[in-house]
Amino acid sequence: MTILTIETTPFADQKPGTSGLRKRTAAFMVPNYLENFVQSIFDCLEGFKGKTLVLGGDGRYFNDVAIQKIIRIAAANGFGSVLVGQNGLLSTPAASHVIRHHKAFGGLILSASHNPGGPEGDFGIKYNVSNGGPAPERITEAVFERSKVIDRYYTVDAPDVDLSRIGIQQSAGMTVEVIDPVADYAALMERLFDFNRIRAMFAAGFSMRFDAMHAVTGPYAHRILEGMLGAPEGTVINGTPSPDFGGGHPDPNLVYAKDLYDLMMSEDGPDFGAASDGDGDRNLIIGKNRFVTPSDSLAILAANAPHAPGYAAGIAGIARSMPTSAAADRVAEKLGIEMHETPTGWKFFGNLLDAGRVTICGEESAGTGSNHVREKDGLWAVLLWLNIIAAREQSVDMIVQDHWATYGRNYYTRHDYEEVDAAAANQLMDDLRARLPTLAGQTLEGRPVAYADDFTYHDPIDGSTSGKQGIRIGFSDGSRIVLRLSGTGTVGATLRLYLERYEPPHGQHDLDTQSALAPLIAIADSLAGIKARTGRDAPSVVT
């Protein structure tokens, strides 16, 4: 094997965000852009010579080209083997499981998650470590520093690997094994959940609609839901992955999955509706006439997890991202288990999961998961919901209302202001941050402010500290206003406003969410000047 050393010059914009490096697809297609970033990752790792790298993605445009480039770079850098999903496909949770199951050194996942795909869309790449989880900040920061000075990358002159053919091939002396992307993951799901009970529920006439949004979860849902569990053919729609996600936006929320929502609110709708996103790590849960917010879903799954065989012994604890509502906190308190509040980003759950301190984790951005992998997992959440419905023999609506009657309801919403001017968004945050010391003790529209801070996380496992993770303004009645800038966009800035208020078990649980939170929405706009500074009369997306 002859290793080729290719001279290059750095790009200044290769700083990984919340979950890897995401840019417009066109940026990654610039000569050496992808190569520089991949080589920067390998330059910051040690001990991988002769080891296994897992590789795959969500099938978006440029994935196939990128995978061939990465295989050659991996061979030149000394990896012993690459495991790659057939046709380049691996959902993010499946990739995490493959890394763990095959004891790989790590993996590269090619996805921009819920962002659109295609030549005019987005592309992304992130490195996951040997526990199957996203690289911690110490690695991503080192990669960024390396990317600013890189002057060469290594590759080999080798033909493309046939990604359509399952089996072992060679690339310049390195073994490349093309694997069934679904098999290992499906076997894991069968161990966690009571497939016999769910299968019997479908056989008795239970109806479901799963929208794969032309994304990577399609093959998994077809195999598991329609194949292994016996759901009728047609239960899974939009189940063939497309490089541009069928021209749609693969984000499972009430804007981009409106057709599913409308179906579930109709007289003829099925019993259960669900969707997942571009790379399969997010979920949308809707019962007949009942949308379940991601924050409530996390709390309900945690409270009911022992109905599934994989969690029959109970759960050790729960972790949630800071902007996620406190609904799960009330479950943890009642169960007498640990509750952890972390920054946004699944990588912050990894240490807690590895240490056995928590079992179930979740984020308000439609991500939930457990200790079975080290990523959020959309289809896992759907299967756990199905297991709970089958075990309790109740509808989604009944399960939700029973939960509120037991724990109370956290009215909760998120307002996204997408692709706003980055300078204006940063100035808004800086100005509000400067006011925080004076807010505590004030009364805003009749609500005493209990605390006002910029969230800092102290990892209880490794002692690391992560600052400036979002502005929190909490009131004495348990209400909260949170503002932060998202790290998952590719153009401008995404300003996210989160609002919640608590209604006790004996309170009113059937109010319209936006109406229930209207006073807090007004306070937030008055404090931060959102409309004036963004130039937007309304959010881009409300969830």
Description:
The chain is an alpha/beta fold. 33% of the residues lie in helices and 26% in strands. It contains 18 helices and 27 strands. Strands 2-6-5-3-4-9-8 form a 7-stranded mixed β-sheet, sandwiched between helices. A 7-stranded antiparallel β-sheet has the order 20-21-24-25-26-19-27.
Strand and helix layout:
Elements: E1 3-7, E2 21-24, H1 25-28, H2 33-43, E3 52-57, H3 63-77, E4 81-89, H4 92-101, E5 106-110, E6 122-128, H5 137-147, E7 152-156, E8 167-171, E9 174-179, H6 183-192, H7 195-203, E10 208-211, H8 217-228, E11 236-237, H9 258-264, E12 272-276, E13 283-287, E14 290-292, H10 294-304, E15 317-321, H11 327-335, E16 338-342, H12 350-354, E17 360-363, E18 367-370, H13 378-392, H14 396-407, E19 409-420, H15 422-439, E20 443-444, E21 447-454, E22 457-458, E23 465-466, E24 471-475, E25 480-485, E26 493-503, H16 513-516, H17 518-528, H18 530-534, E27 541-542
Parallel strand pairs: 3-4, 3-5, 4-9, 10-11, 10-12, 15-16, 15-17
Antiparallel strand pairs: 1-7, 2-6, 5-6, 8-9, 12-13, 13-14, 17-18, 19-26, 19-27, 20-21, 21-24, 22-23, 24-25, 25-26
